[in-house]
Automatic annotation (TrEMBL):
<feature type="transmembrane region" description="Helical">
    <location>
        <begin position="731"/>
        <end position="750"/>
    </location>
</feature>
<keyword id="KW-0472">Membrane</keyword>
<keyword id="KW-1133">Transmembrane helix</keyword>
<feature type="transmembrane region" description="Helical">
    <location>
        <begin position="395"/>
        <end position="416"/>
    </location>
</feature>
<dbReference type="InterPro" id="IPR057106">
    <property type="entry name" value="NXPE4_C"/>
</dbReference>
<dbReference type="GO" id="GO:0005975">
    <property type="term" value="P:carbohydrate metabolic process"/>
</dbReference>
<feature type="domain" description="Cas1p 10 TM acyl transferase">
    <location>
        <begin position="253"/>
        <end position="734"/>
    </location>
</feature>
<feature type="transmembrane region" description="Helical">
    <location>
        <begin position="273"/>
        <end position="291"/>
    </location>
</feature>
<feature type="transmembrane region" description="Helical">
    <location>
        <begin position="507"/>
        <end position="526"/>
    </location>
</feature>
<feature type="transmembrane region" description="Helical">
    <location>
        <begin position="692"/>
        <end position="711"/>
    </location>
</feature>
<dbReference type="Pfam" id="PF24536">
    <property type="entry name" value="NXPE4_C"/>
</dbReference>
<feature type="transmembrane region" description="Helical">
    <location>
        <begin position="561"/>
        <end position="579"/>
    </location>
</feature>
<feature type="transmembrane region" description="Helical">
    <location>
        <begin position="659"/>
        <end position="680"/>
    </location>
</feature>
<feature type="transmembrane region" description="Helical">
    <location>
        <begin position="599"/>
        <end position="617"/>
    </location>
</feature>
<keyword id="KW-0325">Glycoprotein</keyword>
<dbReference type="Pfam" id="PF07779">
    <property type="entry name" value="Cas1_AcylT"/>
</dbReference>
<keyword id="KW-0812">Transmembrane</keyword>
Length: 756
């Protein structure tokens, strides 16, 4: 950890990812849209002072505000620009040399009541080299002139942002005869003089002129593409303009994916309370552990020591045991949440932007698939979608989704469309799994509901508190939670139709189908009635859970994207269980699911359907249009996969224990990646070990997987305590949980008031 301000890194260091994507050292750069640039610079005055290179930077900067601007101004004169809609003024002032004229202009802003620009960008040197034929006398005069200007710039830097742009290198082979005297050696001498004078002068001043030296690094990589050897190609100057925008605007706009120049957010009241709670839990657990260890040593006999048997300490009452488990869980959770906070809220670890290449996505995919096949074992049962098979399915899908996120593959539309199918497959399993449980068991008790809700939401609630994020931010958990409640309501509402009842009278099957048709009708209505959907979820307290950035549009979009797939999962479960009950399928070890002829036909259709969907997804040209079709057609590839995986008896009888292990912690992996594997709320990549990308990914992945596994264990342990089977005890726990959320809402309201 080098420390220091990320602004300094943004202005001075970085590297190219590929050909055009600039990666600052240690932080992430946001790509500003026109609307964002206008909001940041509203009522601001920006001035660029210098030569033709600064004029290039000026044009790239104003194109961030208005892309329609043409470079048609006077070449050797002042160029004004104004955006009246946002009251933004940006001026270019032609001062190609650092001389008395430039000094007089800068001095005018320091005197009296003259309005000072909010941002001043200055730089010049090549004209001095050219006019004076690269003489040493010109360099000496340049030093004298900068020495006289430096105090004025520092005075302006007290109230304005002042940047001195160092001179970019030239491509000497392409320079015209009139510019041959502009050599990189001369440019380095002028830059060295400017940096030394500005740095020595700033030691005695309150404010500092920021040296914009990163353009030199960018130019070193791209100047060969210059048209004349002197001026940068358009992509390079656009990068410089975007860096300027990040330096000034990130602290104002606070973009999630722009960590450069952003101060560490202050701790909220709720975060402080959570910190105190976890600290007390750690202290409490240590005290109880010490007491029990001392008691254990006193009560332990000599024979136990000789036999080498491990004997648990004697606990006097069950209450102490429960308290110790609670404190132990919260102790571990507190340490884990500290790591979460340090990774993604404190400015301790570096963050970098994602950069997609085909190799960064497909090579890891091939690697994990080979590993998965290597760990093949026999299943305990050979039913369709048995527990081991569904864990395996969740596992490999989760690993693919993780690789998709860290590689930034969302920019490649065919990959995006296939990942959408994997998310849909998760929801398909939600519909299949919960329907099967309620249909077979007929258990609609409060205990079952509370267990599922606790396991789904515990980690997300803790992260909402510790990371200061809304519930809807972790969109997948609200999605599966709401769908679980919809499945429960559909089957639990009168008349409750379960398998046992339906076996006695076939008419109950039609009753269940009628329920499913009603559910489908409601889904269809809400998907095409955004107003009705938003009204339902805008009521308090639902609005507190499902609003993001002040509205529920994001929630509606996420819900709508996979609106039919849970219904498809429920319908598949109903048909499969009916076929199983009537012994129309064969699920013996090694046996095909149907007769050989039917199995072969279905297998052929499934493979063709699977490939057809992949071809369609790979030929997608427009994300919006493909997203519109996705809810209706994603089930094709999901069903094709299920049939391919289950029709052949041998394939159904084996599973990958490697994928299944990850499948058991898939929810924790999906949520934890937001902050301790990725960074800046999934927009970037966490860098624990800078300079070694592969080693960094290995280390951060190992920690990330261990943490996800540990959180899964903690959730399971706490679920046994927080959600007991005894109804009276459960009611008391629910009242406590209601009190907890009431307190959380109260403190949240206090936070909102203090922010406003």
């Amino acid at each position: 950890f080098k420390g220091g301000d990320t602004c300094e890194y943004l202005l001075s260091s970085g590297r190219f990812l590929g050909e055009k994507v600039w990666q600052p050292h240690s932080c992430m750069m946001h790509k500003y849209k026109n609307s964002e640039a206008k909001n940041c610079l509203i009522d601001k005055h920006v001035v660029f002072i210098g030569d033709s290179r600064i004029r290039q930077l000026f044009y790239s900067f104003i194109k961030l505000i208005n892309p329609q601007v043409k470079e048609e101004g006077i070449k050797h004169g002042n160029i004004p620009f104004e955006d009246k809609s946002a009251s933004i003024k940006v001026d270019f002032l032609w001062y190609p040399e650092v001389n008395g004229s430039m000094r007089q202009r800068i001095k005018s802003w320091t005197e009296g009541s003259v309005a000072k620009p909010h941002i001043i960008v200055v730089g010049a040197a090549t004209w001095s080299i050219k006019i004076h034929n690269g003489s040493n006398e010109a360099l000496a005069q340049y030093k004298i002139n900068i020495t006289s200007i430096a105090p004025l710039l520092e005075k302006l830097a007290i109230s304005s942002d002042v940047y001195w742009v160092l001179q970019d290198p030239v491509y000497e082979d392409m320079l015209s005869e009139s510019r041959k005297m502009i050599t990189n050696e001369k440019i380095d001498a002028y830059n060295e003089a400017a940096v030394r004078i500005l740095n020595s002068s700033s030691r005695n001043s309150k404010a500092k002129v920021k040296v914009f030296s990163v353009s030199k690094l960018i130019a070193q990589e791209t100047i060969m593409k210059s048209v004349d050897g002197l001026h940068l190609p358009e992509s390079s100057r656009d990068t410089n303009a975007m860096i300027l925008m990040n330096v000034y605007c990130n602290k104002i706009m606070k973009p999630i994916d722009g960590s450069c120049c952003q101060p560490q957010p202050p701790l909220t009241l709720i975060q402080k309370i959570a910190f105190c709670f976890f600290t007390l839990s750690i202290i409490g657990y240590l005290i109880i552990s010490l007491i029990h260890r001392n008691n254990y040593r006193k009560n332990k006999s000599c024979t136990d020591l000789e036999s080498g048997e491990e004997k648990k300490p004697v606990i006097s009452t069950p209450n102490v045991s429960t308290l110790e488990i609670l404190l132990h869980c919260f102790c571990k959770l507190g340490l884990i949440m500290t790591y979460f906070y340090l990774c993604d809220r404190a400015n301790l670890f570096m963050k970098e932007n994602k950069f997609y290449t085909h190799s960064s996505f497909f090579i890891p995919i091939i690697y994990i698939l080979v590993l998965g096949v290597f760990y093949t074992e026999n299943t305990k049962e050979t039913k369709v979608l048995n527990r081991e098979q569904t864990d395996e399915w969740k596992g490999w899908m989760q690993l693919v989704i993780l690789i998709y996120h860290i590689s930034g593959a969302s920019t490649f539309l065919p990959v995006y469309m296939h990942i959408r199918v994997l998310v849909a497959a998760y929801l398909f399993q939600t519909g299949y799994g919960h329907f099967s449980y309620f249909w077979i068991k007929g258990d609609f008790g409060v205990y079952r509901v509370c267990q599922v809700l606790f396991r789904l939401n515990f980690l997300v609630v803790v992260l909402c508190i510790v990371m200061d994020r809304p519930y809807q931010f972790y969109y997948f958990v609200p999605l599966v939670t709401v769908w679980f409640m919809i499945i429960y309501a559909t089957l639990a509402v009168w008349p409750q139709i379960v398998q046992k009842k339906a076996n006695g009278n076939c008419l109950w099957h039609f009753g269940l189908l009628l329920k499913l048709i009603c559910l489908l009708t409601c889904i269809y209505f809400l998907s095409y009635s955004q107003g009705a959907f938003e009204k339902i979820f805008s009521f308090w307290p639902l609005s507190k859970c499902f609003e993001l950035n002040g509205n529920v549009y994001e929630w509606w979009f996420r819900w709508k994207l996979d609106r039919y797939v849970v219904f498809h999962g429920m319908l598949f479960a109903f048909i499969y269980l009916a076929l199983q009950k009537h012994q129309m399928i064969s699920e013996g070890k090694g046996d095909p699911l149907f007769s050989n002829r039917v199995s072969n036909v279905l297998l052929f259709i499934s493979i063709v359907s699977f490939l057809t969907y992949s071809i369609w997804a790979s030929s997608c040209k427009n994300k919006t249009e493909c997203n519109e079709l996705h809810p209706s057609v994603s089930v094709v590839q999901i069903l094709a996969f299920i049939l391919i995986r289950n029709i052949p008896g041998y394939v159904r009888s084996v599973y990958s224990s490697f994928f299944a292990w990850f499948g058991k912690i898939s929810l924790e992996l999906f949520i934890c990646q937001y902050h301790i594997w990725l960074a800046a709320d999934t927009k970037g990549i966490l860098v624990l070990i800078p300079g070694y990308p592969m080693f960094n990914v290995l280390v951060s992945t190992f920690i990330f997987v261990c943490v996800a596994h540990e959180i899964s264990q903690i959730t399971n342990d706490l679920a046994q305590i927080v959600v007991p089977k005894d109804n009276s005890t459960l009611l008391k726990r629910l009242l406590c949980i209601a009190g907890f959320f009431s307190g959380l809402h109260f403190f949240s309201a206090m936070q909102d008031q203090s922010r406003h």
